[in-house]
Design goal:
- The protein has about 325 residues and is of the alpha/beta class.
- It has two domains: about 140 residues, Rossmann fold; about 160 residues, 3-Layer(aba) Sandwich (Rossmann fold), CATH 3.40.50.2000.
- The strands form two sheets. The chain has a six-stranded parallel beta sheet with strand order 8-7-6-9-10-11. A five-stranded parallel beta sheet has the order 3-2-1-4-5, sandwiched between helices.
- Strand 6, helix 7 and strand 7 form a beta-alpha-beta unit.
- Helix 1 packs parallel to helix 9 and helix 7 crosses helix 11.
- The longest helix is centred in the N-terminal third of the chain and has 15 residues.
- The N and C termini lie far apart (about 45 Å).
- It comes from marine metagenome.
Length: about 325
Amino acid sequence: MNALFIKPSSLGDIVHGLQLAESLKREIDDLKISWVSREMFAPLVESCRTVEEVFIFNRKGGLRDFIRLLGDVRKREFEWVIDLQGLFRSGLICFFSRGENKAGRADAREGAKFFYPKMPPLPETGKGSHALEILLQFRKLFDLPPELSGAIQFNSDLPEAVKDKLLSNNSATKLLLFPESRRAEKEWPYFEELSSLLLKTRKDIQIIWAASEAIKVDLPFPGEHFVNLSGETSIESLPALIESADIVLSNDSGPMHLAAALNKPTLGLFGPTSPNRFGPWGQLDRVLTAPDGDLRNLSISKVQEQTEYEIDKNI
């Protein structure tokens, strides 16, 4: 069976979609997954063992590139085409694809519902349900319960220079920090202060910072205890970096969802967004929520206490 999943963005949503696809692949014989992804996320999707083929959606490529994408998709025939994005453009891709069965989100927007005849209902908790729980409802189309089955895996590796930095203190508990998020109000502002406090009081840890853009961090600690990989980590190497860590501390972000999907202990820091909808799946007990939805009000001491608790559990 060939199935096309349309989920161009964003990183966290793609991770949830890949979890759904893998859970279906575990239970449906000979299921082959194709994917529509934005160019910036395509390397990660291509490295996922769940996916056989990736169609590139260049959002900034204009009408000509979008027509090219539709043409590429129409060269293939699918038993199922599933729009996990639920927006006008993803609905158009679904409409023009050649599929025996077409389905999309019950909470689709921008008129996308008109492009597909099948829509699994939302969970009982409606639009306030967790993002992954909403996607798992698509399993009902295949007479399967809306439950997660299996775990996603990647063909991912780290550059040798990064490996050398991480191996400089191989016996330490590796704490991987993601201080970046898509919106400034979702970024906890005290990662540097927390790192300094932890490194002053503990010699049994190595803290690693990772981000898509370079972040200047002024911490006077040697490499065996602090490594700044911000701006040095490609998206396709993210799974390998997360796998190399013992604990992940992150804002509400795509890497947080990826870490949870890879079953790493993941502490999520939440402010204006709801952890019930967007928290690390299966690890909501590790979420710290800021008072009044403002991450500036989430104290360093509270995050430090929870982080050290996880470090001590790991020893």
